[in-house]
Amino acid sequence: MDASLRPGRVRRAALPLTAVVATALLLGGCSDTGAAAVKASPSTSASASASSSTARRGGSDGTDSLQSDYQRVIKNVLPSVVQIEASNSLGSGIVYDDQGHIVTNAHVVGDEKSFKVTTSGSSSAVTARLVAAYPEQDLAVIKLDSVPSGLKAAAFGDSAKVEMGQIVLAMGSPLGLSSSVTQGIVSATGRTVSEGQGGGGTGATIANMVQTSAAINPGNSGGALVNLDGEVIGIPTLAATDPDMGGSAAPGIGFAIPVSMVKTVADQIIKSGKVTDSGRAALGITGRTVVDTNYQPAGVAVVQVAANGAAAKAGLKPGDIIVRLGHTGISTITSLTEALAADKPGQKVQVTYARDGANRTAEVTLGEI
Question: Catalytic: which of 69, 107, 213, 331?
C-alpha cells in the first residue's frame, strides 16, 4: 500500500461502511453498496491501562479476566447501539440521550428524512426522523418518534485519553448482522481521512480520526468504537481499501470519527437543529485542481473568491494557483482540504500562490465553514 506522505495523513482508498438492505435473511445477506472508493490521506490512558493490566490479567494467562472485561463492556454498551434502515441502505447508530436522539453518520441517512430503527434485543422497528445532518463531518442526528421503555444512552469518553495500543470493541450491524461485536486495538490517532463524494460518501475530510484494527464492514457505519471502560471513543465510518487487492477492504485498517467531534456536532444539532460553530477552517474560495504539462497535479486554481472571505481579505483573486498552505505543499483540491482540516478558524497561515508566472505569498486569517 502507498506510504504515508506526511505525519498523521495517510493517503489510501477507503469505503463508507453502509450496507445495502437485503430482502432475504441469510448469513452475508447484506452486501456493500458498491460505493466508489474514497481516498484516505487519516478512555483510559495508556498509563492507566498499564497500571490496571495486572488486575485484568487474573490467572496465569489473563484469558478469563480479559474475557470477563469484554463481556461486561458488551453487556453495558450493546443495548445503546441500534440498527438504522433507510430505503436503500443499512447502518448503525448510538443512543445519545434518553430523549431518543440517535447519532450516526451522514452517509447512513443520505437524503432521507425517515428511518426504521431497531434497538438491541428488539424484534420490531421504531420510526425515527432526521433532526439534521452535517455532511462536512459525516455526522447526523435522528430522533425516535416514540422512546421505548428502558432505552439506554451510551457513555461517551474523552478523545484526549485515546492512545495507541488500547483495546477496543467495534459494535454495530456489519452486513446487516445486528448487535455484532469485533475486537482490536487503537492502531493510530490523528489520521486525516477524505471520503469520495457520491456512491455512499459525503466528500467529507475528517481530521483526528482514530485508526483501529477491529474488523469493521459495511453496516458498521454510525456504530460504536468502545474502550474497556465501556465508553464510546469514536464512530466507525470508513474502511481502507487496497488497489493491489482489486479495491477490496484492507484487513485491519478502519477509521472512526473521534468522540470529541461527535459530541460537539451532536450537541449543536440537538440544541439548534443545525451546526452553529463547526470549528472547521475555510479559505473562502471555490477551486479546482490544475495539471502541469506532464498532466501531473500542480496546484489549486482559484475559480471564485467569496466576498469578505478569508482569501479575499488577503488579496487572492480568481486565476491564482495555490501551491502551498503553511509548510504543506498543495497539488490537488483534496490536499488543500486535508491541510485546512488540521487548522482552526482565526488561525493565520502563509498561502503561497502563483500569479502572472511568479510565486507570491499572503498571510491569510482563516475563516470558518
Answer: 107
